[in-house]
Amino acid sequence: MSYKSLIGKEEDRDVLKSEDDSADKYGIIGLSKRHLFFRKFFKTYYIAYEDLNAVFRRVYMVSGRKGSIPAESLVLVSYGTEVANIGVSGTKSAKEILEKIKEKAPHIDTMYKGESEAK
Predict the structure, then answer these.
(1) Which pLDDT band holds residue 118 (cuts at 50, 70, 90)?
(2) Is residue 114, in this structure, part of any structural domain at all?
(3) Using CA atoms, how far apart are residues 36 and 55, in angstroms rounded to an integer?
(4) DSSP string covering the chain, please?
(5) Is residue 117 part of a domain?
(6) Model confidence, pTM
(7) For residue 87, what are the contacts with CB-CB under 8 A and spacing of at least 6?
(8) Domain assignment of residue 6, yes or no
(9) Is the confidence at residue 82, as pLDDT, over 50?
(10) Total domains, the chain
């Protein structure tokens, strides 16, 4: 598998593979101790949590044959720049991923209050 850094800081492939293999998986997204991974085509992209400032949900409408349906993605922000827009499969998945990111890297602004805090 090919690993590609989102911001240019390449790391050791064997270390990345080990982390990716042990990461918590949410569809195409993996959350390890130090990195967020996601797959796109035949590559796995990664970014260290220390390089992320914010991660947020983007909700938009997609037109289809039977009308519009809502779709969601997670947007990764590093040093004030959007570095990735990752499609996710539903609201529950996006919220769960944001909560896990907040657990693993509390410094990242997820712009999401957990279910218990939202009320």
Answers:
(1) very low
(2) no
(3) 11
(4) -EEEESSS----HHHHHHHHHHSEEETTEEE-SSEEEEEETTEEEEEEGGG-SEEEEEEEEEEETTEEEEEEEEEEEETTEEEEEEEES-HHHHHHHHHHHHHH-TTSB-----TTT--
(5) no
(6) 0.85
(7) 28, 71, 72, 73
(8) yes
(9) yes
(10) 1
What's the rounded Cα separation, in Å, for the pair 43 and 95? 25
**Domain hosting residue 12, numbered range:** 2-104
Question: Which residues have CB under 8 Å from 55's CB, separation 6+?
Answer: 36, 74, 75, 76, 77, 98, 101, 108, 109, 110, 111
Cα of 46 vs its chain's centroid, Å: 9
In a domain, 118, yes or no: no
pLDDT at 48: 96
For residue 77, give the CATH number of its domain. 2.30.29
- 91-100, pLDDT tens digit by residue? 778 899 999 9
Retrieve residue 3's tokens: 């690993």
What does the pLDDT look like over 6-57, one tens digit per residue?
Answer: 997 899 999 999 999 999 999 999 999 999 999 998 999 999 999 999 999 9
